[in-house]
Amino acid sequence: MEKKGKIALSGMIAIAVLTIMLVVGPSLSAYDHDKTYNANATYFVEEHSTGVCWQDTVVSVMFNYTKVSCGGYEANITFDPNCVNITAADFTNSAWGMPIFEHNGDNVFIKVCKFAGVAPGDRLVANITVRCINATSHCTSSLNITNLVVADVPYGNLIPTTIHNGTIDCTPPPDLNVSKITVNPDYPALSDMAFGPTNHTGARTQCNNISAVIEEGNGVAVNNFDVLFRVTNKTTGAVVANCDQTGLSLAGGDNITVWCNCSWYPFAHEDYTINVTVDPQNAIMETDENNNTMLRDVTAHVHGLKGNHWQDGRNISKMYCDSGNINLLYSVGDSSKKGASDLFNAGGIYLANWTTGDLPIPDTATIQKARLYVYYNWDKTTDRNVTDYFSLKFNTNTVNPDKVYTDCKAPDLPHCGYGCADPIRKYAYGYGMVAYNVTGNFVKGTTNTANLTLDPFVWQNKKTAITGMLLVVVYEDSSEPMRIICINEGFDMLLAGPYWGYDYGTTSEEATTYANFTGENIPVTFVTNAKLVTITNHAQDGGDDRLYFNGQLLGNEPWTNMGATEICNNETTVTNLMANNNTATFQSLGDFFEATNAFLVVEMVPVLIGVEPKDTIVQPQDQFDINITIDTGGVPVFGVEYYLHYNTSVVRAETQNKGPFLGNYSDTIVVINDIDQANGIVSYAETRKGDTGKAGIGTLSTIQFTAIGERGAMSHLNLTGVIIVKEDKNETSYIVENGTVTINNNRPPVPIPTSKHRVNNVAKKYPCITKLCACKSYDPDEGKGGNISYVRWDFGDGQYGTSEGEFIENCTGAECEGCQKDHKYESWKWEPFGDPGGHYVPFTAMLTLTDDGCPEETNSSFLDVTVYIAGDANGDGRVNILDAVYVGRHWNERCDDPGYPEPGRCCYLWTGDRVQQDKADLNNDCVINILDAVIIGANWGHVAW
């Protein structure tokens, strides 16, 4: 039932007979909100609110009125009961008293009254509590003020009031659910593989990680919830793993992956149920409480060949990266696959050769890097790595291994690390790659030979096999374009899923390894081509494997055998290159292979042409020059053509002169040199004579302009139609850097006056120089108009002065004469009134600056300068023992004493907290000595009034 007309006639009469007493209510600053309505209005704060189901939102009811005193306010507030409920009203800070709050189904009644009245202003009536109650869907409820009655004092007349209704927008509660359960995913913190108890067949089992994806489906953020993991053996019913993650948070509509790391050691071939529940205690009120649990049944398998994240630190890591006019070549030469019997028949000798046809390196090139990779397999040696039995000669020199990378099919061998414990097939053979640095042994222009000799123990007992050799060379030559080349190397055996009829229980995500290219800082805007070269072993054609670059699939079964070896390669142009942190990804989908090498070859634009300076600021009617410059990046350039466009309403091109880069007038031909002032186009074309080009950095031409536009106008200076011809008479790619010219819109300088002393003394009879500074002042403009040309001081005592010398912004040295002004104050000002007994009044100094713009701009700022009578150190207006104590306490102290910050040009000379020393320095000479004491003695007993 609605309450209407609560301030009735009798109430109005009662208000009228009371003595009028205006009472000022709480200040509006007590209620911070984003809107205020004037001229007799009632409204809500916030006017449009938001809330979440079963959560409370506080909304203020406000009344802003003018001219008369208000004695009472009453109203009904209606709402949609299917969406919200108003549960309470708080009148604590209301300007009125005698509150009433009644709930009437789809509305509430509020009333406040103060017989003495409340003065005009923006007043709080009440803070109402609005609760969203729709738990299933989004809804919006109006908050409407009806049956409003407000009366003035003392007459009881109704106050005309404008009503501003409000709304509250309610969202349903969150909805948490489990969308995915993964076993043994790529968990970054797991650096080693752990093994649990043996099962009844004697096979050791692998520690498993579990992850679950938790989603929020209603777009509502939720905090402090838990996730419970439970793993149960389906045969025995025993709970074999528990993992609780607590205090989690999730943004609305987002998802997170929650981990249960290495808590479960399953027995091979047994069945398990994984139970993941979010919010197991139902602590979070949700739209749907029935989708918080997911179950997944799994069968434990013997683990297989996984990527390096599940292994003992092996990876494919960067060992070389360089830039310049360089190139990379690689070849297996005539190396071939040789099994244990082949090596036995060869007497343990493995030879490989690389001709100039295998590695066509220019005669003028310099070798930057040469690495030889030897791939071996079926290592059956014990206790020691097979590479301990290798001896290599490259050409005629013995070379020791630089890096050794190993992997194997079983974790039992001490030199293998973690791979595949296979109790069915009993494999326990090591595979690997040995890297040799042969940079100093490689000879260009001839055949290079590698002679690998095996220890008799190895070849006579058929302990290993050789897959092949790969020789990689990086060379530098001026004929090559600018490149960045990175070499990564390593060795990682991969195998996912069933293989040869056996299920190793390894997913493709696990059988993945990475070659990371980090920190190269590749200038991607200059890149014209990027190539990824990857090398694998045993990745035969028809295998089931994948290659990715920065997450983009480059190919299925992408690797092809090289020669008579089982070494495979792939070269792919990559288009999603990043400035750094590029990643090549090798993944098995069911094939067995080894990832070994990744080379990133990035070719960059060698030539840059542009406007110099890039951004120019000039004054109206100024004449100025801009240059067209070129950087060839080491590539010889024979000729250049360009067209420069400008805004004819801002600038006018006057002349264009040949620059020195391509050569003297006798060395070149200027084919085109034209200025089209009507259309704003400057044209230029120049070529060298003869056969040789010009490399380096220089100026092609200089163009003189005149600024003809209004202040603040800007013109682009854009190069189009550029053609750059190389020495071989072919065009080259290039990058253009355009420019701008802006006519300065002169702004006034910014004066910042400062004083070198906190306190100064009268200098009529005794020397005390007041040092005033302007060197923190500045002009925000550049070039002409950005220079301070005139400095004027009004010292506030009727005297004026200008600074001498050049004004230097932010100066610190003694050369800044234009920034500092010395002045002698010969009077002081004393105010006799006040507590206790009067005080000094500072002089108001004014600093005025003028710049050199057109027109000139002037600006002023003020500074209070404190001046005491001679001998008064403590500022009480008297010269007595109190002042002498200041001097005695700090006798012989100097403003440059060690241990204190060195004073800047425009700051107090007595730095730090040395205020008392500043006052005791009565003559401002930065030392407290007899000269200050004499001033006190000579003025003993003097007063400032």
What does this structure look like?
By secondary structure, this protein is mainly beta. It has 5 domains: 9-171, Immunoglobulin-like; 176-300, Immunoglobulin-like; 309-603, Sandwich (Jelly Rolls), CATH 2.60.120.1200; 607-743, Immunoglobulin-like, CATH 2.60.40; 754-938, Immunoglobulins (Immunoglobulin-like, Sandwich), CATH 2.60.40. It is 5% helix and 47% strand. It is built from 6 helices and 63 strands. The protein has a 6-stranded mixed β-sheet with strand order 2-11-9-4-7-6, with helices on one face. Strands 21-31-41-35-39-38 form a 6-stranded antiparallel β-sheet, with no helix packed on it. Strand 61 and strand 62 form a beta hairpin. The longest helix has 9 residues, at 9-17.
Q: Can you give me a brief rundown of this structure?
A:
With 945 residues, the chain is mainly β.
Overall pLDDT confidence: 85
Distance between the termini: 79 Å
CATH architecture descriptor name of the largest domain: Sandwich
Structural class label? mainly beta
The percentage of residues in β strands lies in: over 45%
Radius of gyration: 43 Å
The name CATH uses for the topology of the largest domain is: Jelly Rolls
Please describe the biggest sheet, giving its number of strands, its sense, and whether it closes into a barrel: 6 strands, mixed
> Which stretches are low in confidence, meaning pLDDT under 50 for 5 or more residues running?
1-32, 185-206, 309-314, 410-427
Indicate the overall shape: extended
Spatial order of strands in the largest sheet:
2-11-9-4-7-6
Proportion of residues in helical segments: under 10%
The structural domain count equals: 5
- Number of strand segments: 63
